[in-house]
Amino acid sequence: MGASVQNSIPRRDPALVMRLSRLGSMHQCRLSFMRVLTRRLANENWSFARPVFDVDAKGVGHAVYTATGPSRTYSLVAFAHDLPPEERSDRVIATAWDATFTLFDGVPTADDIERLSHNVPYQEAGRVNEKSLSVSRANRSVRLWEHMVDALAKGDQPDVDKVVSVGYLMRTTAVYGSGKLGAADHETIADRPEFDAPFQAEMLSVFLTRAFVRDMINHMARARGGAQAAELALDIAHGLGIGNSTGLGMAPFLINHPVLLNNWVAAREEAIARVRSLNTAQEAEANLFRSLFARAQVLVETWRSEHPVQIKKLVALKADLEKVEAFLGGDDLTANSPWDRLLNWTSAALSEEGQELIASLILEPYGELVDDLSPAMSDHRPDAFRILGTMSVKSTRNLMRAGYAQALETDWSAQENCARAWYVSEEKLEPRLGERFEEPIAEYEQPLSPGRDVALAFADLKTWDDDAPVSEFLLNHPEHRHSIRRVQINACAPYSEIQDNTICADMMPIDMLRYKLATFGATHFDPRSDRWLRICMFGNAPYPEELTPENADLWVYPDAEGNS
Amino acid sequence: MSYALNEVEALAKRAVRGAGMSWGTAEEAAKATRWLCRNGIDGAGVLSALLDHNQGKAEQDLRPAETSGTWCAVDAAQLCALLAGAALSDGALKLKDASITMQRLSFPALLLPFMASAAAQLNCVLVLECDAGSASTDGNLLALSNDALLQATSVDVVIRIGDLTGNILSQVSRAKPAPEAWGTLNTYAHKTYAPATEASRLAGAGAGLSDND
User: Given an 8 Å threshold on Cβ–Cβ distance, is A433 in contact with B5?
Assistant: First the structure.
């Protein structure tokens, strides 16, 4: 992390932050990747165009959306398909979609489009090259799409309640970047300022996809209704985000990228510490917080879920927000370290959902103090992979005790503590979670239980001399190499490990997915089981051509009427 | 066909694990293969040949028996470049005091990325010499005296601090592996995938409420 301000309040303890239940209660904040993107696009005055929209009355064809910044243009190439309903699935194992996309580096030629048209629609079964920065696909929300086309074709606007209850017209089911399917490696674009923060190409692709989806619904309504068709009203269009179905694939990502995970959490924790360290707040800052708190309440009101766990969490969150409202009634938040006082109060009074929502919210008045942290969320330390062989066995053990206390105390011989195993399925290489003692999967287990593996290494280290270099241990025990690497990374990246059991019987993978998606900037988390969930991206955001520095940042919070 | 270096790394990791080596070794092999490809060498080709060569042998039989004196595998068997390489990177500091000799090292090309890791740690140039030729690296660039080293399958090598000499290879951003080698790596990688059953198809990825609404 870059030059850090001297904070009087330290960052929160990794042992508190890195528990699954808390990671699974995270909310978007100023540093979320969608907001970093829209701020940059607006501040640098990016321009947007739709040079191609060649879609027929059945909704089949392609379109190109361009985004031009200070030194480069990127193009979303969208392919629209006429998908039979029986083929529509959000699962990774699907082979056809309502729409497919690639974010192209530059402006594609006719030859490029021709080549892409033979590959992008097939997703994993196709290939792209280094001119593609992402590959993605989306399916319609059947319940909302048909209602909307029907209403607009008749000259009416869609039912707002229906729109709010779904929140999007299409949901992406995968957005692949960084070398997947032949696309450009992240390292080949990492030196471009617009990709300083993580996942900016993927976020740009989704931001442009939202404009394509709005154009498609208007196009389909015109195709059906002709001259009598109405254009989708702007305020309704604003309420629509892009949905996303996310499955287990994201969970291994967090464990397989410990430095990235650390940098994401550390940036937000540093931002929180900076704001908590302020002795006083200006009245304008306190007022902005109050008004955004009220808008966050509206956001929570429109958050629906059918999953029992999330329903319970939402009830608690709504009760939390009422408590906060009462607290704010008795405190003007300007004196005596107001933000630290507020957070100290939340940690005793609120559920983790409520605590983390407020922790994100106190950052809002302080863009100048915290926004510079977003580039530090990328992984600038490829050398962290390298093992320091001269480290002594004693130091290694001490690092294990300090960073893996929870794992070292776990009884790994108890079946319930290792009931699950992560594996990759033969078909479409889909990551899955199975029951170790009920299915023949143990021999295919992926190394996604760092806690257990470090505990095993710790046990084998017991007979070694304190002073022996860890390189000697590794020479004899190559099976512990991945664990020793993680322990050493954790020593300088304290938020790199989930400090919980990732293979126990009652583990909820959606906690990991929720954390990653909140860091992207998603809202409206709606678990559909313990291992996949739906979310909304860019809901309430301005459309590309409307983007200004004034509306580029706080769009995520709807106003009292539910508008951005 | 050209591949992203991430694709090379991901496949190499799975292949090495599929060939029976440990996850930590697989991670090292993946980074090493990527490093070779970035320096214009078909890392996938070398790795697939090494995995074929290692077949049936355990890591304990392929690793350096010890790392003091001359490095060799137990019972004078061939030394695996991945395991010797990982140990070389771990013990890079030893090169400050003396050169390191390895006997019967298989596929020395795969040792070069680990030599680069050691060079980066020591902030110097390291040179590998053997009958097939020499290679030198400052941790980033790679220079070769000739291509024969890349094809060598079993040699005695000496590694020492030295100078960057020979033909410096141009770095590239894409890999162009030989199709057979890519196929071989996929075959090994396949061994890490669990055969799908209808039960796992539903439960494993978490069937729940309908995803078509």
Answer: no
* Mean pLDDT, 10 residues at a time, chain A of 564 residues: 70 97 98 98 98 97 98 98 88 88 98 98 95 96 94 97 92 90 95 96 98 98 97 96 89 95 98 98 97 96 92 97 97 96 98 98 98 95 94 98 97 97 86 92 96 98 98 98 98 97 96 97 93 93 97 90 51
**How many domains does chain B divide into?**
1
Q: Nearest chain A Cα to B117, which residue? A: A386
Question: What DSSP line would sit under A201-257, residue for residue?
Answer: HHHHHHHHHHHHHHHHHHHHHHHHHGGGPPPPPHHHHHH-EEEEEE-TTHHHHHHH-
Q: Is the ipTM of this complex over 0.90?
A: yes
Min Cα distance A398 → chain B (Å) is: 20
Task: Report the DSSP beta bridge partners of residue A177.
Answer: A134
CB spacing of B205 vs A482 below 8 angstroms: no
For residue B95, being part of any structural domain is answered with: yes
Instruction: Look at residue B200 and tell me if it is in a domain.
Output: no
Give, in degrees to the nearest 5, the angle at Cα A315 between A312 and A321. Answer: 140
Cα angle A22-A28-A32, degrees, rounded to a multiple of 5: 120
Backbone phi and psi for residue B142, each to the nearest 5 degrees, phi listed first: -125, 130
Inform me whether the C-beta atom of residue B83 falls under 8 Å from chain A C-beta atoms: yes
Residue B72 lies inside a defined structural domain of this protein: yes
Residues 6+ apart with CB under 8 A from A535: A243, A244, A246, A517, A522, A523, A524, A525, A526
Contact criterion met (CB < 8 Å) for B173 and A130: yes
Contact A424 B174 (CB under 8 A): no
For residue A90, give the nearest of B63, B121, B211 by CB distance. Answer: B211
**Three-state SS string across B37-65, please?**
HHCCCCHHHHHHHHHHHHCCCCHHHHCCC
Dist CA A197 CA A178 (whole Å): 14
Measured between beta carbons, the chain A residues lying within 8 angstroms of B194 are 423-426, 432, 434, 440-441, 444
Would you report the helix, strand and coil content of chain A in percent, each value rounded to 5? Answer: 50, 15, 35
Q: Which domain holds residue B106?
A: 3-192
Mutate to test the interface with A, among B121, B182, B211, B213 (most CBs of A within 10 A): B211
Tell me the chain B residues in contact with residue A469 when contact means C-beta distances shorter than 8 Å: 91
pTM, two decimal places = 0.96
Which of A202, A247, A231 lies closest to A537, judged by CA?
Answer: A202
CA dist., res. A185 & res. B3, Å (int):
10
Query: CB B6 to CB A482 under 8 A?
Result: no
DSSP three-state, residue A286: helix
Asked whether residue B205 is domain-assigned, the answer is no
